[in-house]
Design brief:
The chain has 232 residues and is α+β, with helices and mostly antiparallel strands. 43% of the residues lie in helices and 18% in strands. It has 7 helices and 5 strands. The chain has a 5-stranded antiparallel beta sheet, covered by helices on one side. Helix 4 packs parallel to helix 6 and helix 6 crosses helix 7. The longest helix has 29 residues. It is globular, with a radius of gyration of 21 Å.
Length: 232
């Protein structure tokens, strides 16, 4: 991308974000109480929340993306993700949608319009009506939709900590007992989940694995097939 094209692209991103930010508040009001509209700048994954209206997740402008949005962007953001279940803060039930906005000429993802709707009361009413009108299902059956595991972090460190804790827990080896192969596998999984797309993530990962930042960089280099720079 030439300097001119880069400037033109940056201008398109800014114009798109401003347009989306301008409709976020009236859209949230139109959808009603319990709805949150979030505009993400996909060119700035450290602080992607560009505008937010409504208070479902308690985030503010400058917050990072969710773990699912981060993975979606890393995988190329192929298509929108509509109507998936989420767990909102406070144990409430949500239903979310993520709509990707692309640069028309290149198709590069520029922004995301996300809707988070608190459907806790709707689900309670649905379950109550269902219990009155339907034959009780066998004990093994359930109508609950699987939770996507999406989290709504307020800071980059919170985003990193949540994903790192989940990956370390899945390793089934306490950090203090981990050898280099264990830590390499943790770093590989974090890389697959897009954690290192966030600039400040390395320090948090290093702290969680009880190694230095240079060690994490060496692990990443080793996983990418390059020679380590020293410490391992």
């Amino acid at each position: 991308m030439t300097a001119l094209n880069s400037d033109r692209y940056d201008q398109k991103v800014r114009e798109t974000l401003e347009l989306l930010a301008g409709i976020s508040e009236p859209l949230a009001r139109a959808l009603g109480e319990g709805c949150e509209v979030v505009i993400h700048d996909l060119t700035n994954l450290d602080n992607s929340v560009y505008a937010i209206a409504g208070g479902v997740t308690g985030r503010k402008v400058g917050a990072p993306p969710t773990n699912l949005l981060l993975q979606h962007v890393l995988s190329g953001a192929q298509g929108d993700v509509i109507g998936y279940p989420t767990s909102l803060p406070g144990g409430r039930t949500g239903r979310s949608s993520t709509i990707i906005i692309r640069e028309p000429e290149s198709g590069t993802p520029m922004a995301a319009l996300c809707l988070n709707i608190d459907v806790t009361n709707v689900r309670l009413a649905h379950d109550m009506l269902g219990s009155l009108l339907a034959t009780p299902p066998p004990v093994a059956e359930t109508s609950e939709e699987p939770d996507t595991g999406e989290v709504f972090p307020h800071t980059v460190s919170e985003l990193t900590a949540q994903i790192v804790a989940e990956v370390i827990a899945s390793a089934d080896v306490p950090v203090e007992l981990m050898k280099k192969p264990h830590k390499l596998e943790v770093v590989a999984e974090l890389d697959r989940r897009g954690v290192f797309q966030v600039k400040e993530a390395v320090a948090g990962v290093a702290s969680a694995l009880d190694v230095t930042r240079y060690t994490i960089y060496n692990y990443i280099n080793e996983l990418q097939g390059r020679a380590p720079e020293g410490q391992s």
